[in-house]
Protein backbone atom coordinates (compact mmCIF):
# COMPACT_ATOMS: atom_id res chain seq x y z
CA UNK A 1 0.00 0.00 0.00
CA UNK A 2 1.24 3.47 -0.88
CA UNK A 3 0.83 5.53 2.29
CA UNK A 4 0.75 8.75 0.30
CA UNK A 5 -2.80 7.91 -0.77
CA UNK A 6 -4.05 7.73 2.83
CA UNK A 7 -5.85 10.77 4.26
CA UNK A 8 -4.11 12.78 6.95
CA UNK A 9 -6.49 11.57 9.65
CA UNK A 10 -5.53 7.92 9.13
CA UNK A 11 -1.83 8.72 9.02
CA UNK A 12 -2.06 10.63 12.29
CA UNK A 13 -3.87 7.69 13.89
CA UNK A 14 -1.17 5.34 12.60
CA UNK A 15 1.61 7.48 14.05
CA UNK A 16 0.17 7.03 17.56
CA UNK A 17 1.21 3.37 17.54
CA UNK A 18 4.85 4.05 16.64
CA UNK A 19 7.94 5.15 18.51
CA UNK A 20 8.72 8.77 17.66
CA UNK A 21 12.16 7.83 16.35
CA UNK A 22 10.68 5.32 13.91
CA UNK A 23 8.12 7.86 12.70
CA UNK A 24 10.76 10.48 11.92
CA UNK A 25 13.16 8.01 10.34
CA UNK A 26 10.46 6.57 8.09
CA UNK A 27 8.53 9.68 7.06
CA UNK A 28 10.51 12.87 7.62
CA UNK A 29 12.00 14.27 4.41
CA UNK A 30 9.77 12.15 2.20
CA UNK A 31 7.84 15.16 0.94
CA UNK A 32 6.42 18.47 2.11
CA UNK A 33 3.09 16.95 3.15
CA UNK A 34 4.69 14.43 5.51
CA UNK A 35 7.00 17.05 6.99
CA UNK A 36 4.01 19.26 7.71
CA UNK A 37 2.16 16.38 9.37
CA UNK A 38 5.16 15.52 11.54
CA UNK A 39 6.12 19.03 12.63
CA UNK A 40 2.76 20.79 12.79
CA UNK A 41 -0.13 18.36 13.14
CA UNK A 42 0.98 15.24 15.02
CA UNK A 43 0.70 16.02 18.75
CA UNK A 44 1.40 12.71 20.53
CA UNK A 45 5.07 11.82 20.14
CA UNK A 46 6.38 9.03 22.38
CA UNK A 47 10.16 8.69 22.32
CA UNK A 48 11.82 5.57 23.74
CA UNK A 49 15.53 6.33 23.35
CA UNK A 50 16.84 3.44 25.45
CA UNK A 51 17.75 1.01 22.66
CA UNK A 52 19.01 3.46 20.05
CA UNK A 53 22.58 4.43 19.23
CA UNK A 54 24.33 7.65 20.19
CA UNK A 55 24.16 8.76 16.54
CA UNK A 56 20.38 8.31 16.40
CA UNK A 57 20.02 9.98 19.79
CA UNK A 58 21.94 13.04 18.55
CA UNK A 59 19.83 13.29 15.39
CA UNK A 60 16.59 13.30 17.36
CA UNK A 61 17.85 15.81 19.92
CA UNK A 62 19.50 18.24 17.53
CA UNK A 63 17.41 18.02 14.36
CA UNK A 64 13.89 17.27 15.54
CA UNK A 65 13.16 17.88 19.23
CA UNK A 66 13.67 21.67 19.06
CA UNK A 67 10.76 21.84 16.60
CA UNK A 68 8.33 19.37 18.22
CA UNK A 69 9.03 19.72 21.96
CA UNK A 70 5.46 20.82 22.69
CA UNK A 71 4.18 17.70 20.92
CA UNK A 72 6.16 15.16 22.99
CA UNK A 73 4.07 13.43 25.65
CA UNK A 74 6.42 10.65 26.77
CA UNK A 75 10.19 10.31 26.84
CA UNK A 76 12.11 7.24 28.03
CA UNK A 77 15.82 7.65 28.79
CA UNK A 78 18.63 5.46 30.07
CA UNK A 79 22.25 5.55 31.18
CA UNK A 80 22.81 2.11 29.70
CA UNK A 81 25.59 0.72 27.55
CA UNK A 82 24.36 2.20 24.26
CA UNK A 83 24.34 5.80 25.46
CA UNK A 84 26.10 6.30 28.80
CA UNK A 85 25.28 9.69 30.28
CA UNK A 86 22.12 10.03 28.21
CA UNK A 87 20.08 11.47 31.07
CA UNK A 88 22.64 14.13 31.95
CA UNK A 89 22.71 15.23 28.31
CA UNK A 90 19.05 16.14 28.62
CA UNK A 91 19.76 18.47 31.52
CA UNK A 92 21.33 20.80 28.97
CA UNK A 93 18.18 20.63 26.83
CA UNK A 94 15.91 22.17 29.43
CA UNK A 95 14.19 24.45 26.94
CA UNK A 96 13.13 21.30 25.09
CA UNK A 97 12.06 19.05 27.94
CA UNK A 98 10.13 21.59 30.00
CA UNK A 99 6.81 20.84 28.30
CA UNK A 100 6.99 17.03 28.29
CA UNK A 101 4.30 15.38 30.41
CA UNK A 102 5.65 11.89 31.04
CA UNK A 103 9.14 10.57 31.75
CA UNK A 104 10.46 7.06 32.25
CA UNK A 105 14.01 7.06 33.61
CA UNK A 106 15.72 3.69 33.72
CA UNK A 107 18.82 4.54 35.76
CA UNK A 108 19.34 7.71 37.84
CA UNK A 109 17.79 11.13 38.11
CA UNK A 110 19.28 14.46 39.06
CA UNK A 111 17.77 17.43 40.82
CA UNK A 112 18.50 19.77 37.91
CA UNK A 113 16.76 17.37 35.54
CA UNK A 114 13.53 17.42 37.56
CA UNK A 115 13.57 21.19 37.95
CA UNK A 116 13.37 21.66 34.18
CA UNK A 117 10.24 19.53 33.69
CA UNK A 118 7.53 22.12 34.16
CA UNK A 119 4.51 20.06 33.12
CA UNK A 120 5.52 16.61 34.36
CA UNK A 121 2.50 14.42 35.13
CA UNK A 122 3.88 10.87 35.12
CA UNK A 123 7.35 9.79 36.23
CA UNK A 124 9.07 6.41 36.38
CA UNK A 125 12.50 5.86 37.94
CA UNK A 126 14.64 3.36 39.87
CA UNK A 127 15.36 6.22 42.30
CA UNK A 128 18.77 4.86 43.27
CA UNK A 129 20.58 8.19 43.23
CA UNK A 130 21.54 8.81 46.85
CA UNK A 131 22.58 12.39 46.07
CA UNK A 132 19.19 13.39 44.76
CA UNK A 133 17.52 16.32 46.51
CA UNK A 134 13.83 16.71 45.86
CA UNK A 135 12.02 19.84 44.76
CA UNK A 136 8.25 20.42 44.49
CA UNK A 137 6.59 18.84 41.45
CA UNK A 138 2.98 20.06 41.72
CA UNK A 139 1.92 18.66 38.34
CA UNK A 140 2.97 15.07 39.08
CA UNK A 141 -0.05 12.78 39.51
CA UNK A 142 1.42 9.35 38.68
CA UNK A 143 4.69 7.92 39.99
CA UNK A 144 6.43 4.59 39.41
CA UNK A 145 9.37 3.86 41.74
CA UNK A 146 11.61 0.78 41.74
CA UNK A 147 14.12 -0.17 44.43
CA UNK A 148 16.31 -3.21 43.87
CA UNK A 149 18.55 -2.82 46.89
CA UNK A 150 18.27 -1.56 50.45
CA UNK A 151 17.55 2.14 50.68
CA UNK A 152 17.10 5.04 53.04
CA UNK A 153 13.36 5.43 53.68
CA UNK A 154 13.82 9.08 54.61
CA UNK A 155 14.95 9.87 51.05
CA UNK A 156 11.78 8.43 49.57
CA UNK A 157 9.69 10.34 52.11
CA UNK A 158 11.57 13.52 51.19
CA UNK A 159 10.55 13.00 47.58
CA UNK A 160 6.91 12.19 48.39
CA UNK A 161 6.62 15.36 50.46
CA UNK A 162 7.02 17.30 47.23
CA UNK A 163 4.31 15.57 45.18
CA UNK A 164 1.20 16.69 47.04
CA UNK A 165 -1.05 16.12 44.02
CA UNK A 166 0.06 12.52 43.50
CA UNK A 167 -2.89 10.20 42.86
CA UNK A 168 -1.30 6.97 41.67
CA UNK A 169 1.82 5.32 43.09
CA UNK A 170 3.27 2.08 41.77
CA UNK A 171 6.21 0.90 43.83
CA UNK A 172 8.38 -2.19 43.50
CA UNK A 173 10.91 -2.93 46.23
CA UNK A 174 13.36 -5.81 46.55
CA UNK A 175 15.06 -6.51 49.88
CA UNK A 176 12.89 -3.90 51.55
CA UNK A 177 9.65 -4.11 53.50
CA UNK A 178 7.65 -1.16 54.82
CA UNK A 179 4.82 -2.16 57.11
CA UNK A 180 1.25 -0.90 56.86
CA UNK A 181 1.57 1.49 59.79
CA UNK A 182 4.51 3.24 58.14
CA UNK A 183 2.72 3.48 54.80
CA UNK A 184 -0.38 4.84 56.50
CA UNK A 185 1.63 7.57 58.21
CA UNK A 186 3.37 8.52 54.94
CA UNK A 187 0.11 8.67 52.97
CA UNK A 188 -1.84 10.57 55.63
CA UNK A 189 0.97 13.07 56.14
CA UNK A 190 2.09 13.82 52.59
CA UNK A 191 -0.33 12.50 49.96
CA UNK A 192 -3.77 14.08 50.51
CA UNK A 193 -5.04 13.29 46.98
CA UNK A 194 -3.72 9.74 46.81
CA UNK A 195 -6.16 7.20 45.28
CA UNK A 196 -4.40 4.25 43.61
CA UNK A 197 -1.67 2.21 45.29
CA UNK A 198 0.09 -0.62 43.42
CA UNK A 199 2.49 -2.18 45.91
CA UNK A 200 4.92 -5.03 45.39
CA UNK A 201 7.73 -5.58 47.88
CA UNK A 202 9.69 -8.51 49.25
CA UNK A 203 12.62 -9.32 51.51
CA UNK A 204 14.66 -12.35 52.54
CA UNK A 205 15.09 -13.17 56.22
CA UNK A 206 17.78 -15.09 58.11
CA UNK A 207 17.29 -18.78 58.85
CA UNK A 208 16.93 -18.25 62.59
CA UNK A 209 13.91 -15.95 62.21
CA UNK A 210 10.35 -17.31 62.43
CA UNK A 211 9.09 -16.53 58.94
CA UNK A 212 5.40 -17.15 59.64
CA UNK A 213 5.42 -15.00 62.76
CA UNK A 214 7.09 -12.16 60.86
CA UNK A 215 4.66 -12.54 57.95
CA UNK A 216 1.66 -12.39 60.28
CA UNK A 217 3.00 -9.23 61.91
CA UNK A 218 3.39 -7.60 58.52
CA UNK A 219 -0.01 -8.55 57.13
CA UNK A 220 -1.74 -7.46 60.35
CA UNK A 221 -0.29 -3.97 59.87
CA UNK A 222 -2.36 -3.69 56.67
CA UNK A 223 -5.66 -4.65 58.32
CA UNK A 224 -6.64 -1.30 59.86
CA UNK A 225 -9.69 0.73 58.81
CA UNK A 226 -7.36 2.96 56.81
CA UNK A 227 -6.63 0.08 54.43
CA UNK A 228 -9.88 -1.87 54.51
CA UNK A 229 -12.59 0.77 54.89
CA UNK A 230 -11.19 4.14 53.83
CA UNK A 231 -9.29 3.09 50.71
CA UNK A 232 -10.32 -0.52 50.10
CA UNK A 233 -6.71 -1.47 49.47
CA UNK A 234 -6.26 -5.17 50.15
CA UNK A 235 -2.74 -6.43 50.70
CA UNK A 236 -1.76 -10.09 50.36
CA UNK A 237 1.22 -11.82 51.91
CA UNK A 238 3.11 -14.78 50.44
CA UNK A 239 6.04 -16.75 51.79
CA UNK A 240 8.50 -19.09 50.13
CA UNK A 241 11.47 -20.47 52.05
CA UNK A 242 12.77 -17.38 53.86
CA UNK A 243 11.24 -14.80 51.52
CA UNK A 244 8.19 -12.69 52.35
CA UNK A 245 6.33 -10.85 49.59
CA UNK A 246 3.59 -8.28 50.12
CA UNK A 247 1.45 -6.99 47.27
CA UNK A 248 -1.82 -5.22 46.64
CA UNK A 249 -4.53 -7.46 45.24
CA UNK A 250 -4.36 -5.80 41.80
CA UNK A 251 -0.92 -7.38 41.25
CA UNK A 252 -0.72 -11.06 40.30
CA UNK A 253 2.32 -13.28 40.81
CA UNK A 254 2.74 -17.02 40.55
CA UNK A 255 6.11 -17.52 42.23
CA UNK A 256 5.08 -18.25 45.79
CA UNK A 257 3.59 -21.43 47.12
CA UNK A 258 2.15 -20.47 50.49
CA UNK A 259 -0.32 -17.69 51.06
CA UNK A 260 -0.55 -16.31 54.59
CA UNK A 261 -3.51 -13.96 54.11
Give the number of helices: 11
CATH class type:
Alpha Beta
List how many beta strands DSSP finds: 10
- The average pLDDT value, as a whole number, equals 80
The third-level CATH topology is Leucine-rich repeat, LRR (right-handed beta-alpha superhelix)
Low-confidence stretches: 105-112, 252-261
Helix content: 25-40%
The major β-sheet equals: 10 strands, mixed
User: Structural class of the secondary elements?
Assistant: alpha/beta
CATH architecture name: Alpha-Beta Horseshoe
Rg (CA only): 22 Å
Question: How much β-strand is present in the residues?
Answer: 15-25%
- SSE string, helix = H, strand = E? HHHEHEHHEHEEHEHEHHEEE
Widest sheet: strand ordering: 1-2-3-4-5-6-7-9-8-10
State the distance separating the first and last CA atoms. 56 Å
- The global form is elongated
Number of domains: 1
Amino acid sequence: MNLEFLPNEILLDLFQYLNGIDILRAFYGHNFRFNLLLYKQFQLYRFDLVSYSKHQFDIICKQHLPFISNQVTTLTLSDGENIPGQINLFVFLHTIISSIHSFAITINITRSFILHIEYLRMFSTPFDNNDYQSSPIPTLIELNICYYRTFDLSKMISFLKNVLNLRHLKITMAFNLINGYQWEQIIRSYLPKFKIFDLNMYDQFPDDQNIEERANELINSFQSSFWINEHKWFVRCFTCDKIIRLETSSIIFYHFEKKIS
